[in-house]
Structures are given as structure tokens and as C-alpha cells.
Design goal:
single chain; 3-stranded antiparallel sheet; two-stranded antiparallel ribbon; transmembrane helix
Length: 544
């Protein structure tokens, strides 16, 4: 080959190489530009989806009213009392055991303190504050919610005087129900009930652990020492609940007539989940996944969330980890979290009214209705889980939920929740607000001792029944009370003696506060309370 040909070949090669490099450079530049454009789109999308909507006045007003029932139910020496017809009560509770159990809250229309539903009340209040505290703050209700929570957790701390002892009840319900009197008229020392290693109560100890663990997150930034104390009690109580397994309904048969437990496995998962969030201890995550998930979680079988059954709440709370991601978990743990999420999705599909798998447990007016006793608890609890799961989807940019081939959006879940809230607030066939104090038409004869007896009445245990049987409206408004609710045919009998429908409960108030706080702003997005996990040397959990 001649020199000229060699030079031409080299020149052609250089030219080809130049073209190739130029094309690659152009492609890289285009890719970068496209990525920047996509990032800008995502940024705008994030900004739009994370921008909270305007305040919805009716839910803000209802939230302010609902929170006041906790003040109605307070026991002990009252501070900053907002209820003019309430005074100090229960000041001697716990004194015979050198304990101060004067705080806490009365359970319902009676004067009992039941630890199991009271702890559930605290857990739900904590959850609402953690997810929707900003909404509460916007409408100036966050302080009231925290104060009510602390009134309960102060009691729970004192009710746990040693690692394996928990006082779960103040008062004798049989004796209590033989009297009709104001809480301020409580006389003498009331009996206490405890669970311990000889008489275990796994579900109540675990629920109390859940209450303290979740509350420790609420107070973490505002009172770190109190937060640490709550977490310490929560860890001890969970260890006690897990090591000495047994139902308190078996250990203490008397509770079966009031708050009978149908099992404790759900409370163990519920408590361990909250402890994982609060403590950063991965062994709690392992407890709810590898060790006990398959045995305890009822994956694939949706259940109704309430004071007795925590499965649905646990599924949704653990879905948070799967949706948002959690560092440090094993592949097996992540697969198990996917099972919690799938079950949560199945729950959502049952709640959506036009879903192929929609539950038939509803009234004609659309209210979720499961039981004639305190029927509203299931509607409120289900609605809260629905709007919360929908907000998880919004935060994670998940646009679609599939229910047997049919697609739904987070807005559909929020609309379902709104339908339940609006029904409770008066959009129902009776045109009655089941939230006392809200609207112009609400129950006047709530089954509630303090509300039914005039402040200046001088009654004893027995003659107070005159006020129970009176046909006159209550002289005091049990503001914020959520009554039991309508029958399946959507009727409601406003009679003080109709305790099936007319008696409010404190845990109902926690549920309605949770629901209303989620709806205060029309497109709210939850802030993450997740704390990155770390490994610790000690393992506080045991397997089956």
C-alpha cells in the first residue's frame, strides 16, 4: 500500500472516530437534558401532591368538639378544666397499694377505668397525632390532643409499678353498675385488678406497651425524658406480655362480661410494630415478620379494626414501612412486609363500596355496620385506615389500587372516609349528628352519669337512678361524645335507658378524633415519623 493510501485510511479512521465520539456525546447530553426535564416534572408533581389543601371547616369544627369528650371523661385532680360541670374525682384510686391511679379516664357512661380500652384510646390518639399532627396544629387542637394523651399515659406509668405487674382496672363493675351518681360523688377506696406472672394478661399488657411506645414518639421532641420513660415501660411490658402468654379473659374471668378478649396474637404484633418505630430495634421488626408473621398476622384475611382486634391496624402500619421503605431489613422481612401490604389492600378493597370485593356489612345509607353494640366504632376505624392508606399512596406517588381488576385512586379511599364521617355528623336518614354538640340535632339523652345529673343535685348511690329514668334531656351536655349509633335499619332511639345505642365510650372519641384529623385538610399528606433502624445487642423478643 502506498503512503498516500495509508494516510487516507488513517484520516478516514480519525473522521469515523470523531463522528462516533460526537454521537455518543450528543446522546449523553440529550439523556442528561431529558433527566433534568423529568426531574423538574417530578419536582412539580411532588410539590403539587405534597401541598396540603385548604381547611375543611366542618371537620375542623367537629374535631374541636370531639376532643372535649376527653375532658368530660377525666378522673383525678383536674387542670385547666374546660368542662364547667366536671370537678375532681377518683383522688383515692390506687391508694391502698401506695399508687397514684387518680388520673386516666372513665370508660363510658359509667365510672370504671378499664385498662384495655383505655390503652387502645391512647394508642389511637398517638397514631392520629403522629400522622396528622400538622392538621391538628393548623386548627389549634394539637395541644389539647397531647394533653389528653398524657393524662392517660401518666396513669399507665403509675399502673405499671414493676416489670411484671400491671394494674388493668380500677373499680368493681358489678358494684359500679348498681349506682347512678356523678364521678365527683365517688366515695371510699375502689378495688384494683392486676395481671402478673401468675395471672397473665398478654393482650392488655401488649396494648399498654403499644400505647406507651407510640406515645414515646409523640413526646420525643418536646419532652425527651418523658419519652424515654414511656419507651422503657413499653419494652418491659412487651417482654412481660410475650414471656408470660395468656389471655386476661382466662386469668380474670370477670372481664368477660365487659371487655372480653378474643385473642392476644394481634396485640403482640401491634405492640412490636410500635416498638420498632419507637426504639429503632430491628429485633421487633423480625418479631412481626420472620418469627411470628405467618402464625399471628392472618395474612390475606381482612378483619374489622376495633379495641379488641388490632390486625387491620397492624397491617396498615406495617404497610407504611413497605411503601416508604426501611433500611437494614432482610429480604425475608421485606417479603413479609409485602404480605402485610397486600392484606391492607384487600381491606381497602372491601371498604370501597363499588369494589368487586366490597363488604355487604353496610346500612342502606352506606354506613359500615358490623354490630348492634357500638356500631360506629367500626365505621370510624375503617374510615381512618382508608384515608390513611390513601395518603400513604399519595406520599409515595402510587396512583392506583387494584381490586380484582378494577382500579381505584387515593381519592376514592378519601371519599369513602368522607362518606362515613358525614354520616356520623348528620348526613343520614335520621338527620341526626351522632357527635354530641355538633350541629343543631344531636342526642339529648346520652347514657352518661355525669351528664344526666345536675351539678347541684345531692344524690346517693341508689336515688341517682331517678335521673337515669327521667324523660327530661340531660342537664349537662356530654360535649364531644360519640354515641353507639343507629340500628341496621338506620333508626336511633334517643333514650337514656337505651345504653346499646346511647352510651358513648372514650375509645370512640379516639377513633373519631383520628378520622376528623385526617380530613381537616382536603388533600393532606402524612409526615413520616419513621426513624432509621439500628442493630442492638439485646433481643427483647422471643419466637413462638
Amino acid at each position: 500500500m502506498e503512503a498516500k493510501e495509508v494516510e487516507d485510511t488513517k484520516s478516514n479512521f480519525r473522521w469515523c472516530w470523531f463522528l462516533l465520539v460526537s454521537v455518543i456525546a450528543i446522546l449523553v447530553i440529550v439523556a442528561v437534558v431529558l433527566a433534568i426535564i423529568e426531574d423538574l416534572k417530578d419536582s412539580k408533581k411532588d410539590s403539587a401532591s405534597h401541598h396540603p389543601g385548604p381547611i375543611v371547616k366542618k371537620y375542623a369544627d367537629a374535631l374541636e368538639i370531639a376532643l372535649q369528650f376527653f375532658d368530660v371523661q377525666k378522673s383525678g385532680k383536674l387542670v385547666n378544666n374546660r368542662i364547667v360541670w366536671r370537678g375532681d374525682s377518683g383522688l383515692l384510686d390506687g391508694i391502698e397499694m401506695n399508687l397514684d391511679l387518680s388520673k386516666g379516664m372513665y370508660d363510658a357512661g359509667d365510672l370504671m377505668k378499664f385498662g384495655f380500652p383505655m390503652s387502645f384510646t391512647a394508642t389511637m390518639l398517638s397514631w392520629a397525632i403522629l400522622e396528622y399532627g400538622e392538621n391538628m396544629k393548623t386548627v389549634k387542637q394539637l395541644g389539647h390532643a397531647r394533653d389528653s394523651l398524657k393524662w392517660i399515659t401518666d396513669f399507665l406509668i403509675n399502673a405499671h409499678p414493676s416489670e411484671n405487674v400491671l394494674y388493668i382496672q380500677v373499680g368493681d363493675p358489678e358494684l359500679d353498675h348498681q349506682c347512678w351518681e356523678r364521678p365527683e360523688a365517688i366515695r371510699g377506696i375502689r378495688p384494683l385488678t392486676q395481671v402478673n406472672t401468675s395471672f397473665p394478661g398478654t393482650e392488655v399488657a401488649a396494648e399498654t406497651a403499644a400505647a406507651m411506645a407510640s406515645a414515646s414518639l409523640v413526646f420525643k421532641k418536646i419532652d425527651s425524658s418523658y419519652s424515654n420513660l414511656l419507651l422503657e415501660h413499653a419494652q418491659q411490658l412487651f417482654s412481660f406480655a410475650d414471656a408470660y402468654r395468656g389471655s386476661y379473659s382466662v386469668s380474670i374471668p370477670q372481664v368477660q362480661n365487659y371487655y372480653n378478649s378474643t385473642g392476644y396474637e394481634d396485640e403482640l404484633l401491634w405492640a412490636a410494630t410500635w416498638l420498632y418505630h419507637a426504639s429503632k430495634d430491628l429485633s421487633y421488626l423480625k418479631y412481626v415478620t420472620e418469627l411470628n408473621g405467618q402464625q399471628f398476622a392472618n395474612w390475606g384475611y381482612p378483619t374489622w379494626f376495633n379495641w379488641d382486634d388490632k390486625h387491620a391496624g397492624t397491617h396498615v402500619l406495617l404497610s407504611r414501612l413497605n411503601i416508604f421503605g426501611a433500611k437494614g431489613m432482610s429480604s425475608e422481612e421485606n417479603l413479609d412486609l409485602q404480605m402485610y401490604r397486600k392484606t391492607s389492600e384487600a381491606i381497602m378493597c372491601e371498604l370501597l363500596p363499588d369494589s368487586p370485593t366490597a363488604t355487604s356489612s353496610r346500612t342502606k345509607g352506606g354506613l359500615v355496620w358490623v354490630s348492634k353494640w357500638n356500631c360506629l366504632q367500626h365505621a370510624m376505624a375503617s374510615a381512618f385506615l382508608a384515608v390513611l392508606f390513601g395518603d400513604y399512596m399519595v406520599t409515595a406517588q402510587i396512583s392506583t389500587l387494584y381490586c380484582h381488576g378494577k382500579s381505584y385512586s387515593p381519592a376514592d379511599l378519601r371519599n369513602f372516609a368522607i362518606s362515613q364521617a358525614d354520616y356520623i355528623l348528620g348526613n343520614n336518614p335520621m338527620k341526626i349528628s351522632y357527635l354530641v354538640g355538633y350541629g343543631s340535632n344531636y342526642p339529648q339523652n346520652v347514657h352518661h352519669r355525669g351528664a344526666s345529673i345536675p351539678v347541684d343535685a345531692n344524690t346517693t348511690c341508689k336515688d341517682g337512678f331517678t335521673w337515669l329514668d327521667s324523660i327530661n334531656p340531660n342537664p349537662n351536655v356530654a360535649v364531644g361524645a360519640v354515641v353507639g349509633g343507629p340500628f341496621l335499619n338506620e333508626t336511633y332511639i334517643d333514650s337514656r335507658n337505651n345504653w346499646m345505642q346511647a352510651e358513648p365510650t372514650t375509645y370512640n372519641s379516639a377513633l373519631v378524633v383520628s378520622l376528623l384529623s385526617s380530613l381537616v385538610r382536603s388533600s393532606s399528606v402524612v409526615d413520616s415519623f419513621y426513624i432509621a433502624p439500628t442493630h442492638v445487642k439485646s433481643a427483647p423478643c422471643s419466637s413462638i
